Amino acid sequence: MSAREAILGRIRAAVADLPDDPVEVPRAYLRGAPGITPGDREATVELFVTRVTEYGATVRRVPEADLPTAVAAALDERAARTAVVPDGLDPAWTAAWKGQVRRDVPALSTAQLDATDAVVSACAAAVADSGTIVLDAGPGQGRRALSLVPDVHVCVVREEQIGSALPEVIGRLDPRRPITWISGPSATADIEMIRVQGVHGPRRLTVLVTH
Amino acid sequence: MSKVFLDWPAFPTAAERATKDEQLRANVRRATHTIRAKRGALAAERPDWQDLRDSAAAVKDEVLRHLDTYLEQLETKVREAGGVVHWAQDAEEANRIVTGLVQETGETEIVKVKSMLTEEIGLDAALEQAGISARETDLAAAIVQLGDDLPSHVVVPALHRNRTEIRDIFRREMGRHGRPAPDDLGDDPEELAEAARLHMRDKFLRAKVAVSGANFMIAETGTLVIVESEGNGRMCLTLPETLISVVGIEKVLPTWRDLEIFLQLLARNATGERMAPYTSSWTGTTDGDGPRTFHLVLVDNGRTRALADPVGRQALRCIRCGACMNICPVYERTGGHAYGSVYPGPIGAILNPLLKGPDDTQTASLPYASTLCGACNEVCPVCIRFTDVLLKLRSDVAEGDAEVKHPAEKAALKAVAGVMRHNPLWNAAVKSAGRAGAVLPTDMNLPGPLHGWTDSRTIPEIPAQSFRTWWKRTEGGTR
């Protein structure tokens, strides 16, 4: 008998005492963030800004027309000289920046990425309650390594992408795509349970919320 | 040589040693109190916290009831997405499969994402025997590995170490495994994290093979999920050519939507954050993004044994948040190593006997490593009733088929049961206890096999008069 058959057989024998009916799952938990009236867009965006800021990221609300200068400022204040941009990113966003823009076409090597200071990306969705941005490798986001290896991440979030809480957002995502949920910069609490910001992922995260 | 828990003393012996280590107690106390406060604040912030727990427990119960169906569905979906699925009945089979897969790649140094299952099966040691060096990349797991130490917590394996000890380990060991720590390395946590970042960096960039566990596997889509903080997980899941994920069969969830429950519970309960910095999910392989080869090794290693226990099977709901150890008054005083397993604390006290069977003195001692205060019941995100399982396992050890018994306790209980059933005898016994209580010192040590009781306890003061005598004399307290 294969290991597979043995394990499945043992599982069936182990639960033979239980009724076969599916266990009913209550789902009484909130669909949106506690304290936010469903549909209150301004409160949702404000909560997102507050929560991302609490993680130690820099967050700014920027009208779309001002994005190019806001992106340039975000890169300059981190002293970035090179930035990678994923395929599908609006070229206007980096147009005002004087540094070197590297496109990931053809794909940069890991060493080239490591030698790149920053990444500028869009996102697939965002969650206000947990201060999370979600990347799904779609247009303007690129493969996962782009938002991982460079030390500075500038991410543009459109207000309408921000959902109130996780239950509201998860249904919008396609799990067949590689998905990364980012809640603040890389961190660790492994030394005496004290939070230290910045380990292997980008140590500096700037989120530009635009409308 | 990678360490594993082997020939470990029974809990009382190990605990006696641990409680005398003042440095250890201070470290564990500081860390558990810090995390308790954070967790408490973030759980309190959710008015629907109990609803989330109830949902999580029910989803896990459904998974366990139909685990065969969900695993078959998962296997199909992972294959459709370009992954290869392997099944391992025990640790040895799992280690053989993973070693073989790494050998096929020809690589001799690989990177690892922290995984308690790979600790449970002793994978690092097995790979080492095959000439493969597996480098831990999670900061705490790396501290344990560099210090030739053992994990003492499921979320923060180096919880028993303080910053000065970590600095000393880094200074001494990093250079032997790659980029050395700076000579003037201090003990500031930020400085230590920076040293780890630099030490790991070129390992990530060079690695061709990574081994990981997973927090969740989604049956309906074949998706795996890893929740982490540092980005070492993302590095391992993204940069290498081959990814081998070794996961316990109980980690499956039915649907993608179920994550909305567990992702809201896990980080809040584990580290006191609304969400951990990084949650990654992937389904098989994706062209041009991440590893080209993906293997999933599904491991039983005693889980079906635990599943067959009608009371104990709820332990398989566990999502390894570590909240039960952070709140436990016993763990706080002994630390994790006393439990002799990669799963310490209340979950270890029930999971180890369920996985292995309480057939050796070490494992059989674990259900007794508890005061039954029930604090773990209250913080568990999947509503495991630890105290119910502890009592069931104690009765297994005392009366069941377990080879190891507590003979003195068993004989004593048998004698007491005989006397209690016999009314005149019981009355006589209680009366004589009252008389004895007047002359016996409370700090005396009981003789023979009963000394274990008085080693750590004083005999309670015995009232001069029994309750029955008092009741009779006062007519139920009315006179």
Short description:
The complex is a heterodimer of chains A (211) and B (479). Chain A is an alpha/beta fold and 211 residues long.
Descriptive account of the structure:
The complex is a heterodimer of chains A (211) and B (479). Chain A has one domain: NagB/RpiA/CoA transferase-like (Rossmann fold, 3-Layer(aba) Sandwich), CATH 3.40.50.10420. Helix content of chain A is 22%, strand content 23%. The longest helix of chain B is centred in the first third of the chain and has 23 residues. Chain B has 479 residues and is of the alpha/beta class. In chain B, β5 and β6 form a beta hairpin. In chain B, the strands form two sheets. A six-stranded parallel sheet of chain B has the order 1-10-7-4-2-3, sandwiched between helices. Chain B has a four-stranded mixed sheet with strand order 8-5-6-9. Classes of the chains: A alpha/beta (211), B alpha/beta (479). Chains A and B meet through α1, α4, α5, β9 and β10 of A and α2, α3, α4, α8 and α10 of B.
**CATH hierarchy class name of chain A:** Alpha Beta
Biggest beta sheet summary of chain A: 6 strands, parallel
Tell me the number of structural domains of chain A. 1
Number of helical elements of chain A? 5
* Low-confidence parts of chain B: none
Superfamily at the CATH H level of chain A?
NagB/RpiA/CoA transferase-like
Total beta strand runs of chain A: 12
Superfamily (CATH H level) name of the largest domain in chain B? NagB/RpiA/CoA transferase-like
Helix content of chain B: 40-55%
Distance between the termini of chain A: 61 Å
Low-confidence stretches of chain A: none
Provide a count of the helices of chain B: 23
The SS-based structural class of chain B is alpha/beta
Strand content of chain B: 5-15%
Give the overall form of chain A.
globular
